[in-house]
Design brief:
Blueprint: H1 5-26, E1 30-32, E2 37-40, H2 44-67, H3 73-99, E3 101-104, E4 108-113, E5 117-122, E6 126-132, E7 137-142, E8 147-151, H4 157-167, H5 177-183, H6 192-202
Length: 210
């Protein structure tokens, strides 16, 4: 490997992550006006990349084998290893891109995880929203202790956060402050529900002069 191998790999990874962030900001979630729901899922760029990684490298290896068959036992083991390597790396990626989604409604969140199945979380069961810096995802915690994670690379994330801002007190979202900074969204020091409650606690006529 040459001296530029690792810098090239690092730059490529960073460029692709930037492309995913750009796609997440540009792409819009799917709205259903009749049902009054909004569906959030991975971007088209992410899904096409998962298809590419799942099928193109194995196909390329197969084409190379057709024109240049293995001649030694070591070559056979190396080829099998490559198939297993690309399969092991691409299968979870493809499964994630196809099976993840969150459907927002006035009743709650219809969450579909490729790893934990489908579950519905009513808004009154949501306890807090936090952020995991290691994996760059927002974490929804319920009163029953369940968790559901949403990556910052998912389009429609700001719409999802708006729903939490309308329903959770700011102290229940304090753990998500870093995530707000990462996506460039101001953290709600006081959300709409808290301001309305404060308004009624002090009385709607308290600011008027007699």
């Amino acid at each position: 490997m040459g001296p530029f191998f690792y810098p090239i790999i690092s730059i490529s990874v960073l460029a692709f992550m930037g492309l995913l962030l750009w796609a997440a900001q540009r792409e819009r979630p799917v709205a259903d006006p009749v049902a009054g729901t909004v569906r959030i899922r991975h971007s088209m760029v992410f899904r096409w990349f998962s298809y590419f990684m799942a099928f193109v490298p194995p196909l390329g290896i197969t084409v190379l084998l057709f024109f240049n068959p293995p001649r030694k036992d070591g070559d056979v083991f190396a080829i099998v290893f490559l198939y297993l390597l690309f399969g092991g790396l691409s299968a979870p990626l493809l499964w994630e891109s196809l099976c993840f989604s969150v459907v927002l409604s006035s009743e709650g969140l219809d969450c579909r995880s490729p790893w934990r199945g489908r579950r519905f979380i009513p808004w009154n069961e949501v306890q807090e929203l936090s952020y995991g810096a290691v994996n760059s995802w927002f974490i929804i915690r319920t009163r029953a202790g369940d968790r559901f994670r949403v990556s910052i690379l998912v389009p429609g994330l700001k719409l999802l956060l708006e729903q939490f801002e309308q329903r959770l007190p700011s102290k229940a979202m304090e753990g998500a402050r870093l995530g707000y900074t990462r996506i460039g969204r101001p953290f709600p020091e006081r959300n709409r529900g808290e301001m309305e409650q404060e308004y009624w606690d002090r009385g709607p006529d308290c600011g008027r002069q007699p």
